[in-house]
Amino acid sequence: MPLLSHPLPPYSGSYPVGAIDLEVPCTPRTFSNARLRDGEVAVQLETWPAGPISLLGRGYARFARTDSFVVRSVCTAVLWLFAGRTTIPAEVDVPLYGTPAPENSPTTDDPNPGGVNGPGGNRFPVIIFSHGMASTRTNYSHFLGELASRGNVVVAIEHRDGSGPGSVVHRADGTAHTVIHFDSGSVHLVVPGVDALKRLQLAFREAEVEETVSILRTINKGRGEKVYQSNTHPSGEGRTLSIVGGGGWAGRLDMEKVVIAGHSFGATLALQTLRPGYPVAFKGAILLDLGKRSGPLNSHIRPGVPMIIAHSQSWTDGRSVQGPFHGSTSHFQAVEDLVRKVNREEKGAAWFVTVMGTTHASVTDALLIQPVFSCRWILGPATGDARDGVEKFARVSSEFLGWLGDGDKRAYETLSEDGRDWVVHVAPKQT
To answer: Lipid metabolism: is it a keyword of this entry (predicted)?
Structure first.
């Protein structure tokens, strides 16, 4: 355990939590002629999967607009002191709940306590999660683990679009390629500027989501052995996918009801995937702190798709000082107008709520690992207990998932009424 950090707490749900790291080669795609200053293609899709701490340190140095040896070293040292050996409280490469483990595979003492089925019968709901700018998928491990402990299969994508601090792409031929953060000043674009780069990165993320769904479908069809054999991640995980006939996973994922979710820039991406014509028709969406610097929000939503937009209190409180947002008086107004439009014109069921006592970082592991950062003098008056903040976001997401899964009237009423944990700005009419 790092010198200055706290361990992540256990999960509160009734299901045990496991984790598998997968990095699977896909057909390479280039999304534009954009190139870095050294001539390398800026964004190219090679594999679907966080990088070494030294790489993350270099990436965060770039976010600080410097890449000197001294600054990189300081960033790396700080990361090591505060989070260097923090572990996620989940079993590695264990079978899906209700499945016997293959011989010699690591497993829990009791991999299927209490039965063999997920909350939806024999199949488990699936959530695909997109991380925010300057983040990695592991920054959200506790929030995502909470959702998993409540009976969901959660897939967190490690985006390689240059928006994160850094990541290593492991190719099928054994070579590796480093993707590190870059900004608009580091890329030669046909139409230069931040907005053009954001559009390019969102398009790249959309493709990563498509590849993710494709891999999940392969696993669900009982071809987990193929995915396991294709895994280029150094961990070598995925053996539990290769049980004869895909036994643990075949037919166990409810691919007809996949939910897309994201935080900040990832929430903007998730909203993009709800447009008509996107190759994947998601069942619903969970959008946390929709991006304020991600460009205009997609307002062309596929008719009938439910969503919940949950902002932290600090994200909402900024509405009075932010100013105009792409034609709206503020970001808050743009989100409110979007949700009302979905409920009015698209025959959807959309909520817009503020989760009280939370900040933009509350959904991440940062405040759990370093509670000192929860101090109000650092993050402002909206800051509450770190663990309570994650729990609130997990609860509002779970209530939405409960309503989405079986039309739970109680969940609908809970989401639509102000309470201790959240304030409702817009709610749909119950039909």
So the answer is: yes
Q: What's the structural domain count of the chain?
A: 1
Annotated active-site residue 360? The verdict is yes
CA 423 to chain centre: 23
Is 107 within a domain? yes
State both tokens at 242: 């290769």
Backbone angles phi, psi at 261, to 5 degrees: -140, 160
Please give the structure tokens belonging to residue 360. 């933009």
- Rounded to whole angstroms, the Cα distance separating 246 from 242 reads 6
| Residue 402 domain-assigned (yes or no) | yes
> Which one of 131, 142, 311, 360 is the catalytic residue?
360
Question: Of residues 264, 312, 314, 398, which has the active-site annotation?
Answer: 264
Domain annotation covers residue 252 = yes
State yes or no: is 312 an active-site residue: no
Contact 8, 364 (CB under 8 A): no
Query: What SS3 class is residue 213?
Result: helix
Any idea what the CATH number is for the domain that residue 354 is in?
3.40.50.1820
Q: Which domain holds residue 246?
A: 18-426
Cβ atoms of 114 and 151 closer than 8 Å: no
Sequence-distant (6+) residues with CB within 8 A of 169 are 23, 46, 47, 160, 176, 177, 178, 179
Per-residue pLDDT tens digits for 244-258:
555 578 899 999 999
DSSP state of 55: H
pLDDT tens figures, 132-169? 987 888 889 999 999 999 999 999 999 888 777 667 77
Alpha-carbon distance of 147 to 150, in angstroms, equals 5
Catalytic pick among 21, 93, 254, 289:
289
313-348: per-residue pLDDT in tens?
999 987 544 688 988 989 999 999 999 999 998 777
Whether 386 is covered by a domain: the verdict is yes
Place of tokens 């699936």: 126
- SS3 category, 340: helix
